[in-house]
C-alpha cells in the first residue's frame, strides 16, 4: 500500500452544511430593500444579458435551432404575485444564465455532503485536463476523443494500478476569437493526490502535444462552496458580444447537445435526488401583499404590471451602484 498525502495536510470537515443558493453568496443590503429584492435584480440583469446574446444567436443559427433558443427568450418572462410570493416558470436550457445558476446550486446541494464525507478520509483536488485547441469543424470528434481518453484512464488505473477513481468530471468549452479555435477541457474534483497525479500523467501520454504547464492540480476544501463552483457551473460562458461570438456559441451548444456535461464516477453518489425545478418561487417582501401579474420589459430590464409599475427598479438601482459592483461580485464567485 502506498502512503498517501505526504506533502498536503488533510482537511477536516464538519458533519453537515447548509443548502447553497448562489444568489445568497453575493447579497448586499446597501442598495436593496431585502435579499429577495436583490436576487430578482440580479436575475433581471442576467435575463437581459441572456436575451441580448440569444437574439444574436437566433440571427446566425439554422432555422431548426431557433425554436429552442426562443424558449429561453420566454424563460421567467412572467412573474405571478400570489400574496407574498412571486412565481415564475423556467426553461432549464444550458444557454440560460438564470437556469444555469439554479442548476449549479442544485448540483452543489446534491453533492457537497458526499464530497465532505470523502474529505474526512482523504483530501480532494481540483484537476484541470487540457489538450490543444481545435477548429469548429473538428469540435464534435475532439469532444468524443477526450471522453474516450478519460474512460481509458479510469480503466488503466483499475487494471494496472488497482485504483478505482472517485470523483466528478465536468466538460467545459471556451472559444478564442483571435484564432477562431475552441478549447474543450475537463475539470475534475478528484479524491487523492496520487490519483490526481496519475490521471494527469496518463492524460499527457494520450495527448502528447498537450502542454504540461496547461494542466493543473490544486488542493481544495469542499466546505467552501466557491471551491465547487468551477466544476458545477456552466459548460461555456454564454455571453455573445457580437455575431462572431454568437456563431461560436451556437457551434458549442450544437456539439454539446445530447452529451452529459457533468459526470460522477466511482462510489460518489448524491446525498439525495432533487427533482429539477420547473418553476421558481421568491419572497415578495419588498412590495405590498397583493395578487398581480408582472411581465418582463427588455428595455427596462424589469417587470411591469398592468398599471405600468416596475417591480424591481433596475435602471434606478444601476444608476446608484458603483461601476465595479457587478465585476467584484463575479470575481468573488468565479
Outline the fold blueprint.
Blueprint: H1 35-60, H2 63-73, E1 78-83, E2 85-89, H3 97-121, E3 124-129, H4 139-160, E4 167-176, E5 181-191, H5 193-206, E6 216-220, H6 226-232, H7 243-256, E7 262-265, E8 279-283, E9 290-297, E10 302-304, H8 314-320, H9 325-333
Antiparallel strand pairs: 1-2, 1-9, 2-8, 3-5, 3-6, 4-5, 4-7, 9-10
Report what the structure shows.
This protein has 334 residues and is α+β, with helices and mostly antiparallel strands. The protein has two domains: 28-92 and 278-334, no CATH class; 108-275. It is built from nine helices and ten strands. It has helices at 35-60, 63-73, 97-121, 139-160, 193-206, 226-232, 243-256, 314-320, 325-333; strands at 78-83, 85-89, 124-129, 167-176, 181-191, 216-220, 262-265, 279-283, 290-297, 302-304. The protein has a five-stranded antiparallel sheet. The chain has a five-stranded antiparallel sheet with strand order 6-3-5-4-7, with helices on both faces. A hairpin with a 4-residue loop joins strand 9 (290-297) and strand 10. The two termini are 38 Å apart.
Question: Could you give the order of the helices and strands?
Answer: HHEEHEHEEHEHHEEEEHH
- Counting copies of identical and different chains, the oligomeric state is single chain
Major sheet: 5 strands, antiparallel
The share of residues in helices is: 40-55%
In terms of DSSP E residues, the strand content is 15-25%
Taking all Cα atoms into account, the compactness measure Rg is 22 Å
Instruction: Report low-confidence residues grouped into runs of 5 or more.
Output: 1-7, 329-334
